Amino acid sequence: MRLRLTPSRIAVGVVLLVAVILCAIGPYIFSDFFVRSILTKTMWLGIAASSLIFLAGFAGMVSLGQAAIYSIAGFVMGNLVAADGGVDTALSPWVGVILGLLASTVIGLVFGAVAARSAGIYFLMITLAFSVLNFYFWGASTDLSGFGGINNIATPGLIGSAGRDPTRLFYVAFIVSILVYLFLRYLIRTPFGITLQGIRDEPTRMRALGYNVPLHRVLAFTIAAFIAGIAGILFIWQNANRIDPNSVNLSATIDVLVVAVVGGLFRVEGAWLGAFVYTVLETYSKNWDLINERFNTVIGAVFLVIVLLSPGGLLGIWDSVRGAARRLGRGAAPATEPGPAGGGGPGAT
Amino acid sequence: MTHPKVRRSRLWLLLAVLVVALAAIAAGCGGDDSAEPAPAEPAPAEPAPAEPAPAEPAPAEPAPAEPAPAEPAPAEPAPAEPAPAESGAASGEPIKLAILSDCEGAFAAFYEWDIGGAQAAFAKYAGGVPKGENPSDGMDGIVLGGRPVEIVGYGCSNDTADKAIEEMRRLVEQLGAQIVIGPLSGDEGIAVANYAKEHPEIVVLNGTSGAQDTTLKVRAPNFFRFNSDGAQWSAGIGDYAYNVLGWRTAAVVGDDYSFPYTTNAGFIAEFCAAGGQISARVWPPLGETDYSSWVSQIPDDVDGVYVGVGGSGTVPFFEAYASLKGDPDPAKITGNLFISDPTFLGAYGKNLIGSVSSGPTAGDANTPEAIEYNKTIDETYPSIAGSGPSVFTYNYYNAAWALTVAMESIGGDVGEGNANLLTALSETVVPGAYGEIKLDENRQAITDNYVVQIVEDSTGDGVPDVKTVRRIPAVDQSFGGTFTPDTPAPDRDNPTCEPRDLPWIGNAEEVDYSSGATDTAATESTG
């Protein structure tokens, strides 16, 4: 299946390219603060949100468990490498990274095997319960989470001290983000991805056609857990090399959802757009006297506006504008592209 | 099919939202641009140290540590900006200062008190002029040791360490703060002390966070705490419970994080040192709203309960206690400073008339220092009048006061890498309203502590008053040798309960301020 190059596709490509180039030269044109607190956070938060977008937008599974999953990778790594707090082991940071990712993936598989058999609101609730359980587990297991969190977690030499020089961490996060993005884009076009989208739209019909629906959903959840795990590792390095149970409380869970919805639940790239907008708003709105301590109100308002006006998120607005412009330009002529007209429906990629 | 007109109006709506969103982003980036030079380039004023290892080269500029060594173009001819410390002393370069507190979470109610405390000290000792009715409206005209001070921002955390770090980064790296007063709560303090260690170019004066590890274990050379820690705040109460109230067994309850671990550790250490036994330790999570299941874990056969539940949880805890175990018997309840805090007294104090707690302030003290201090708070910020005896106001006030004293002593010349300021702060003695404050070798306060009793309202405002009954002079962080850098940090199980020798058991001074001339009772009323 060959994509046609339409003006709007070219426009999207150009915007993406500019964003990537801006990020690539980010450390040379932005302040250290911007690179560390905005761009790097955008990368890991975007990865976390992309795992949710993959689940919600392409498998129809709105999960509130992604923050819990990324915390598992983070805590496992924190306990396995040298750190203040947690279990006193000092494996190589890379071994910590691999085992952290492995732990989040395996737990994703096991939990997915249970949760993926439910759907809709029940799936949402079961993943929410998982998040809460995860939060209290780490809060209660202070042998693993430290009293006052796990601090000063050792980082690989490749990252160095991100507190002093954020450049290397940023590039790692940036490259990993691109890889995750390309991987997800690829995945949703494979037969597996197409099947998932079929299951999202018509699970009963897919079952009748002979597909193993639960298996596909479990696999999707496991893949998403792996991706969320990557976010968890990057999160620790960006978060001054520390994690504590409060890092993954309910509000962190909701943050991931807000980012995904703001960016657009139906496009993978929406994850990073949402993460960027969220991080920028969160950071800079506090410098305005009027807003300072009212940041949550602002992000709540943005969230509401987006949900009401554009269920496809900020990227959905782009789709709406494009569709509207086309209609204005061509009068009542029927759209030639299957793209969603009003609010970015599924399949917009 | 939607009507075309409806579609068009929808389109305009969408466009409007897009414009607003873009404006928000643009304004955000603008904020960054304007602030960028500050954090990014303070250092390159010099030929620039070749690479990292910033602490050693000791070039003439103050802050080589963090942003500079990153790498960018150090050869450049010194941007005509910062170079904060050294030359600034002569030229009167403004010092950038920030105040970090909590505006969300369990302690959000104390946001204005914290900022107000710090700024009231600046108003009194450094010429600060409030910009508005509320402390967070800002303050102009502060001069420390001849150097003008600009308050670049207020940190708005939510009692989690992650948010405190985020806010520190914003204040220091984006807004360019060189000196930070804060944070508020225990875990935040540990994280901020670690942050300070990694950023030797800044100076941090603790706000009111009271976890023990912050100064006993982290020991950042540029982190100063002019308030006592949670354990010190408990000095005197274990002795009182054992020897005056006659308890032999007790249960302790506290929020499940480092500060209550520390206050409860002080009670446990002292109560057990005197000969008492701890029957149960119950730790509900911070931010809990229904304490029933936790109250039910308190054994019925204990002689008393020590309550270390703070912030927004204190009232719900006692309500759950009353519904499960009947109205609390004041002789069987003691607690950390939260149960004698003006906010709590206003909300629930009537039910606890006679209970004792302890803390570093004596709300009814009628010494000239205490009267003057409370007057300063009330006159500078009528909006927070009456909050003087609260540790939130008091500790932030003393931190700012200490900074003022230290800056005066060095004439505003903070020296290379803040060396002069760090030395001056270590040697600063603050004649605090409720007792002199000096620092130990870990830059941790040694100061007096008080046992206070909740008594009937005598001022007619309907809020119970606090009567100070004992003073324990010059309590140090080691708590008479109980805590050292090598002992386990206070946690759910530590310290263990064992008899020890504590210097002040049986030696606390009995005090009675009610016999004094001046009526200072108004100072305890809530704002």
Describe this structure in words.
- The complex is a heterodimer of chains A (349) and B (527).
- Helix content of chain A is 68%, strand content 0%.
- Chain A has 349 residues and is an all-alpha fold.
- Chain A is globular.
- Chain B is 34% helix and 17% strand.
- Chain B has helices at 4-35, 37-40, 86-91, 111-125, 161-174, 186-198, 213-218, 237-243, 258-274, 292-295, 314-325, 342-348, 368-380, 391-409, 419-427; strands at 95-102, 129-130, 139-140, 142-144, 147-157, 179-181, 203-205, 223-224, 249-254, 277-282, 304-308, 333-335, 356-359, 430-432, 435-439, 445-455, 465-475, 509-510.
- In chain B, strand 6, helix 6 and strand 7 (203-205) form a beta-alpha-beta unit.
- Residues 1-90 and 517-527 of chain B have low confidence and may be disordered.
- At the A-B interface, helix 3, helix 13, helix 14 and helix 15 of A face helix 1, strand 5, helix 5 and helix 6 of B.
Number of DSSP strand runs of chain A: 0
Shape of chain A: globular
Question: Helix fraction of chain B?
Answer: 25-40%
Mean pLDDT of chain A: 86
Largest interface by Cβ-Cβ < 8 Å: A-B, 56 and 71 residues
The total beta strand count of chain B reads: 18
What is the N-to-C order of secondary-structure elements of chain A (H for helix, E for strand)?
HHHHHHHHHHHHHHH
Task: Quote the average pLDDT of chain B.
Answer: 81
